[in-house]
Amino acid sequence: MADQTAKIKICVVGGGAAGLCAIRHLVGNSKFDITAYEQTNEIGGTWVYVEQVGLDENGLPIHSSMYQNLRTNLPVRIMNFPDYMTMEAQEPSCVSHQEVLNYLKDYTKHFDIRRHIHFNTKVEYVRFEPSEDCNCDRWHVRVKNLKTNETEVRYFDAIIICNGHYFNPYVPIIPGIESFSGLILHSHAYRKPEEFSGKTVLVLGAASSGIDIGIDLSDHATRVYLSHNNDRLTGVLPSNMTQVMGVDSINGTTFYLKDKSTVNADAFIMCTGYKYSFPFLDENCGIRVDDNYVMPLYKHLVNIEHPTMCIVGIPTIVLPFPMFHMQVQYFLALLEGRVTLPAKSVMLEDSTLKTLRKRHAHRLMDQQWDYFDSLATAAGFERLSPFYKLGYIAWSFQRHANLLRYKDSKFIVSEDGKNVELILPD
What is the rounded average pLDDT of the residues 338-354? Predict the structure, then answer.
């Protein structure tokens, strides 16, 4: 895709887990010249817990969505990057956000990643610039040093977007919400359960964060309502935590629910997810987001309009770190010419909406294993070890059955990686 006598200049946007993974695979290849930009002063992205909410010292929105007591909802053994298996926790198999951040710091040191990252540097603007004199399109990237306020424009042959997808809250429109006089926040700004002591809290949403935050609150709040429209959870919940239907409207402290019933609460936490956001991309980059459906992407990854750009980490309900590992290797194989893209019409068909709702377009769930295998097969690199899939499936079953204690299970992988054993706590 570029003059093979010169190094391929690659820009990596973001120093979270996906960005670190991208740099790690670039570092070992002499064909690439790497520059990475991270707008905070440290690596780790959303895994960096910061107590403050709102804006940071540079006047930018706080990126992290970590809360004080967060533990992973996956056993860390299957969260490891396949080429750096150092998170070994067996019992309990789910660990704190600090332990995951320590792992990312160790990964960064082990692969000598840090020297390629420009910290406190915000990517402000990215534009595609087609070449008129040779077959070497390029990317115009303007960055700003947040300490000096100086801006700089650099040009790259390829760009890997790793800006994270858990920082721009999705806030639903709820009639009457302006009449609510209690505390309202999105899970992005939730930090400590003690702040809700003695309160009745309505938590909207029962995906991972809604359930986990609801349970976290239960030791301090008087009552927790878990409000959602999904199938009812069948696992045991704390005695002061009750499932109710989703919120239809609000009047004062009264919540009118979808089944016409009402509950009263004096705090409201929206665990309603996040919006994909790429505010720095010019329209000519070709990327559009419609109700969280990012398009046009081939294999949920490669920008079909300009295949020297990829966006890492779009699929959800997956094993994130192993997915980054697979996606990055596929894209680098594409840049090296070891992967040939199909016709544009085939890629556009691959990117068409295949779910009933646009906002579910990138949910992979059980499809993630075929997806990972397709990347590995096309680019000729190693597939994930079987224990990732076996562990994920066993874990999903256990989680639904034992919401309160599943994180304390013992997670054992056989030496050959072909068998997984889960032992519940006594």
Answer: 96
Confirm if 350 and 300 have CB atoms less than 8 A apart. Answer: no
Its sign, for the CA torsion 110, 113, 115, 121, is negative
**339, pLDDT greater than 60:** yes
Q: Which pTM does this prediction carry? A: 0.95
Contact of 423 with 107, CB cutoff 8 Å: no
120 band by pLDDT with thresholds 50, 70 and 90: very high
Q: What whole-number distance in Å separates Cα of residue 209 and Cα of residue 80?
A: 21
- Better-predicted residue by pLDDT, 92 or 22: 22
Is 396 exposed, middle or buried, given 0-12, 13-18 or 19+ CB atoms closer than 10 A?
middle
Q: What angle do CA 12, 14, 19 make, to 5 degrees?
A: 65
| Two tokens, residue 376 | 């590995």
Entry field: residues in the chain: 426
The answer to whether 1 touches 337, Cβ cutoff 8 Å, is: yes
Q: What is the mean pLDDT of the chain?
A: 94
How many alpha carbons fall within 13 Å on the CB side of residue 135? 4
Terminal alpha carbon distance of the chain: 57
Per the CB < 8 A criterion, the answer to whether 422 and 416 are in contact is: no
Backbone angles phi, psi at 374, to 5 degrees: -65, -35
pLDDT reported for residue 2: 44
Instruction: Check: CB of residue 269 under 8 Å from CB of residue 241.
Output: no
Peptide bond into 296 cis (omega under 30): yes
Instruction: Tell me the residue type at 360.
Output: H
Beta-bridge partners for 274 = 169
pLDDT digits (tens, 9 = 90+) for 122-177: 999 999 998 776 667 899 999 999 999 999 999 999 999 999 999 999 999 999 99
pLDDT in tens, 355-385: 999 999 999 999 999 999 999 999 999 999 9
Q: Please state, in angstroms and rounded to a whole number, the distance separating the CA atoms of residues 88 and 396.
A: 19
Amino acid at 176: G
Task: Estimate to the nearest angstrom the gap between the alpha carbon of 234 and the chain centroid.
Answer: 27
